[in-house]
């Protein structure tokens, strides 16, 4: 491949990497915000919020699977479960944010750490899928596998730049 085609390919791969990482960062930010909210909302308040949000949809379709699932789940949310979910979301989100910031700043330590953490997410998501058969878990897992490969590609590219700069 000539140098101009290689440059264009690298440019598009880098843009795809940046967009993918930003999506992961937004996900981490939302998880962190959700975990923070859960620390301050009581289970009864959570149930009331879910009822308020889903009320219109439930009127239109009383048999809506997702709405009924959310309502049922909110009724079974105890203080202990809520605290666990809040801490889980805070830690999960914070780890993603730290890795994403490192990757966007091209810190070499962030690439292997990201690959390791995203791989752990994939394994956990596969385990959860076996338990629940949730289609959303498949989508998240496919995205994370893609992210692992593109992060590895970027890491080898960045590492190659660093090595050639020191020669």
Q: Quick one: biggest sheet?
A: none
Number of distinct helices: 6
Question: What fraction of residues sit in β-strands?
Answer: under 5%
Instruction: Give the low-confidence spans.
Output: none
Taken from the alpha-carbon principal axes, the silhouette is: elongated
Structure overview:
This protein is an all-alpha fold. It has two domains: 1-105; 106-167. 88% of the residues lie in helices and 0% in strands. It contains six helices and no strands. The protein is elongated and about 60 Å long.
Topology of this structure?
Elements: H1 3-40, H2 43-60, H3 65-75, H4 79-104, H5 110-132, H6 135-165
Helix pairs in contact: 1-4, 1-6, 2-3, 4-5, 5-6
């Amino acid at each position: 491949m000539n140098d101009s085609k290689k440059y264009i390919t690298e440019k598009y791969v880098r843009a795809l990497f940046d967009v993918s990482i930003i999506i992961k960062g937004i996900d981490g930010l939302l998880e962190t915000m959700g975990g923070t909210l859960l620390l301050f909302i009581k289970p009864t308040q959570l149930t009331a919020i879910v009822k308020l949000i889903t009320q219109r949809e439930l009127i239109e379709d009383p048999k809506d699977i997702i709405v009924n699932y959310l309502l049922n789940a909110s009724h079974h949310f105890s203080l202990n479960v809520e605290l666990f979910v809040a801490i889980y979301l805070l830690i999960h989100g914070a780890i993603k944010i730290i890795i994403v910031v490192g990757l966007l700043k091209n810190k070499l330590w962030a690439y292997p750490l990201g690959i390791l953490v995203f791989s752990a997410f994939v394994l956990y998501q596969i385990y959860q899928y076996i338990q629940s058969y949730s289609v959303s878990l498949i989508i998240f897992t496919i995205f994370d596998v893609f992210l692992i490969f593109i992060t590895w590609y970027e890491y080898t590219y960045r590492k190659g730049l660093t090595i050639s700069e020191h020669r």
